[in-house]
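Fold this sequence, please.
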Amino acid sequence: MIALVHYRIAAYVRSHRVIQAFLPILLLLSFVFASRAPRGQELAALTDSAVLVIPLLAWAARGLLDTEPDTQRTVSATTVGGPGREVTAGLLAALTVTGAFAALALAFGLLLGLSATPTPTTLTAAAALHGLAALTGTTIGALTSRPILPSPAVSIITLLAAFVAMLLLSASPLSWLTVPVTAWMKAAGNDTLTTDLAALTIPSVLWPLLGLAAYTRLRRTRP
């Protein structure tokens, strides 16, 4: 499985699909941090970047999972000892890539987007949100990848619709039905994120895990 994870990441990089995700993420961060966040707004600015980068992380995960030809998945499953391991290896590779891009977003904000050095508590909260963003993006990307949605047009539209729906639901009384990204931003703006983080983490982890379970289930019935 470790070898398959390495293989998929290497294939993603060598196919240059990584550039298709890297450039939009770099452009987004350039806009988000076009002006340095004022002193005292460090966590709010870093939270905004964690939320806004999610659809691009989903795009990266989708691109990685789509890099491998369809018939190669069967070969990979045979090599690693079953389809379950093949699916797990793909998800681990996608999470590694989205985690790297999320770390890039956090580093960009810390180095170029803030007027003051954040406190250790702020840095910990921001790092946690970017980790949750990577998990969320991986889930959306997996559920819109070619084995689940063969049509590229339908896949892209669904990916964007999923992010918009997540924003709308998390801003409504039905926020418990999705990852509460709007609640992240509200808590950061009200300077209560560090105290609310534990409560916000529960649905932020639960829904992606349910989505990944659904992806695994769907892959059992699809080539």
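The mean pLDDT is 92. Residues 83-112 form the longest helix (30 residues).
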